[in-house]
Amino acid sequence: MKAVTRIFLKGLAAVLPITVTLYVLYWLGSTAESLLGRGLKMCIPERVYRPGMGVVAGLVLVLVIGVLMNAWLFRTLFRWSEKLLERIPLVKTLYGAVRDLMGFFSGTEKKAMRKAVMVAVGNTPLRLIGFITREDFSGLPAGVGGGDTVAVYLPMSYQIGGFTTMVPRAAVQPIDMSIEEAMRFAVTAGMTGAKGG
Questions:
Q1: How far separated are the first and last CA of the chain, in Å rounded?
Q2: pTM for this structure?
Q3: CA 115, CA 108: separation in Å to the nearest integer?
Q4: Which residues does 165 contact at the CB level (< 8 Å), separation at least 6?
Q5: CA 166 – CA 150 distance, rounded (Å)
Q6: 183 vs 90: CA distance, rounded Å
Q7: Comparing C-alpha atoms, which of 177, 125, 124, 127 is closest to residue 154?
Q8: Does 113-187 carry CATH code 1.20.1250?
Q9: What are the CA-CA distances from residue 162 to residues 32, 46, 100, 115, 153 (Å)?
Q10: Coil, strand or helix at 88
């Protein structure tokens, strides 16, 4: 019975990530089709509309917003709307978390993470994988950092989140891994190799 359970779990581990990924893509596509498709049907004749046009409209809309983000006026309006959202208690937390996550995957947050490092925990042999996010603390309140201190982000395995810590520079050792490799290694609890293997 243990052998059957082990084989089943191995099959589940192979199938589940693909299934969840396909389901999320399906959900995004069907949501775009439902919301934007309804709007398109009001703008164009019914006979012209084809299934899937809502998804295409969603992709085009995201692309147009990406282009508009290069315009000063649009960026200013966007920042103003963000400030409004950040005044609403529950929305502020949810919006901030999603924005930071998307910033990481889109590449803007990766630029903030300068290098992957190992952080020593006291005088123990324990080491944590982290990412230096700030070395210059000018413009921040006194006591946040400075001197021989760096800000290091420590991700949590199998979770969206982590801790920002102020660490003495002597406790930080650079490692020969890209940000992506180190993040993949950290969030999978070391189960995925640095090269994704």
A1: 30
A2: 0.49
A3: 14
A4: 119, 130, 151, 152, 153, 154
A5: 6
A6: 28
A7: 127
A8: no
A9: 31, 49, 12, 16, 7
A10: coil
Q: Which structure tokens are listed for 66?
A: 């990406």
Q: What CA–CA distance (Å, rounded) separates 185 from 197?
A: 10
Residue type at 190?
A: G
Retrieve residue 194's tokens.
């640095």
Residue 197's alpha-carbon distances to 120, 160, 185, 193, in angstroms, are 26, 22, 10, 5
What are the boundaries of each domain within the chain?
1-66, 69-112, 113-187
> Using an 8 Å Cβ cutoff, are 78 and 66 in contact?
no
pLDDT in tens, the chain (197 residues): 778 888 888 888 788 878 888 888 888 888 888 888 888 888 888 788 888 888 888 888 888 888 888 888 888 888 888 888 888 888 777 777 777 666 655 555 545 567 889 998 888 888 888 888 888 777 777 777 777 888 888 888 776 678 888 888 888 888 888 877 888 888 787 776 655 44
User: 197 with 187: CB under 8 angstroms?
Assistant: no
Q: In what order do the strands lie in the sheet with 162-168?
A: 162-168, 149-155, 127-134, 115-120, 172-174
